[in-house]
Amino acid sequence: MSNAPLMKSEKDVSGGLDVIKVREDFPILQRSVHGRPLVYLDNAASSQMPRQVIDRLVYYQTHEHANVHRGVHTLSQLASTAFEDARRTAQHFLGAREEREIIFVRGATEAINLVMNSYGRAFIGEGDEIILSAMEHHANIVPWQMLCQEKGARLRVIPMDDAGELLLDEYEKLFNARTRFVALSHVSNALGTINPVREMVATAHAHGVPVLLDGAQAAPHIPVDVQALDCDFYVFSGHKLCGPTGSGVLYGKAALLEKMPPWQGGGDMILNVTFGRTTYNELPYKFEAGTPAIAPVIGLGAAINYLTAIGLERIAAHEQALLEYATEAVRDIEGLCIIGTARHKAAVLSFTLGDIHPHDIGTILDQHGIAVRAGHHCAQPVMQRFGVPATARASFAFYNTFEEVDALLKGIHEVRKVFA
């Protein structure tokens, strides 16, 4: 791919997506930072929110705000309807078989902790083994470590190669009679690697082992069908999907969720309470104790509708075009090393630049209005695997443009000048 600037018509429309028109939906993209137009390339950490989602949140707060599932008055009924509409929206978005398989949580981290506390504590014991991959986010490592420490269980880790691809032959060898659970990232937040999770789920199921997929980096960018994947649990966060913070989804197969005890106790997760005993509510409410994050969930539903209207296939095509353009362009930058070169990647470009610390890279780019993430990305084992303390990470979304990639490249050259 040539590094020469693309013609305006090519930049404005990629994969059938009119990016310039899409950008009009995002008020924050019109602002400046340090006197420069904002170039927001930290989408893997948190995506921006379109006006359609903002307006839906404001409408709920100004016209429908009330508690859900508990009142017979009009506002409570309106809020309850909007809340449950969001559940159906999430069900269709993930391709779940049943509406009751969608549990609302505050994000992927809470969803993983729910599964660990409920399924893990009930079905994993001393001497049992849990398989994780070497590229997991801390949120999909630490809860399982906590469980292993409590139960006397053991973690087994799938290794990866220098490109950031998991070694599937080694994965197969990890299974034995004590294997009880597998937890995997669908897409690596630090490397962008898209893992062959359908194949990996099938391998685990051949050994009778359930699988949780962390979809925080996948659900906003590529179509997900949990029935086709046949995973047992799938999690994602709303704030990475153009929705509000404090929102997320845990999908679980109904048969497994039925067997799992509640994680938290309180209102709405009960049918009957006496001081002698409590009868728990049916799915999904058994796992939704207390007043939920009503506004964020409604906003999440609006965000899913927004992305669905654009089309995940079109989103993926545009983001891949950005990634390919950026990847080819940075190859000519002296001293720049891409960390994560898997054959199948989401739109994440992690890199180091000679001896320049990624925090310095991020700070200088910010002075030019360019927002990237710098650090270990809550994936310290990945950094250790590649022998670096941290990376700078540019992560693209469907509202980013080729001009913004050019701005990133210019900014990296400015960083090099500072340290020349």
Q: Could you characterize what this model shows?
A:
With 420 residues, the protein is α/β, with parallel strands linked by helices. The chain folds into 2 domains: 8-50 and 312-418, Aspartate Aminotransferase, domain 1 (Alpha-Beta Complex), CATH 3.90.1150; 53-309, Type I PLP-dependent aspartate aminotransferase-like (Major domain) (Aspartate Aminotransferase, domain 2). It has helices spanning 8-12, 19-23, 51-64, 74-94, 108-123, 142-151, 168-173, 197-206, 226-229, 254-259, 294-310, 312-330, 358-367, 380-386, 402-418, and strands spanning 13-14, 17-18, 32-33, 36-37, 39-40, 102-105, 129-133, 154-158, 179-185, 211-214, 233-237, 248-252, 270-273, 278-280, 336-338, 348-353, 370-371, 373-375, 391-395. It has a 7-stranded mixed β-sheet with strand order 6-12-11-10-9-7-8, with helices on both faces. The protein has a 4-stranded antiparallel β-sheet with strand order 15-16-19-18, with helices on one face. Strands 1-2 form a two-stranded antiparallel ribbon. Helix 8 (197-206) links the parallel strand 9 and strand 10 (211-214). Helix 4 packs across helix 11. The longest helix has 21 residues, at 74-94. The two termini are 28 Å apart.
Outline:
The chain has 420 residues and is α/β, with parallel strands linked by helices. 40% of the residues lie in helices and 17% in strands.
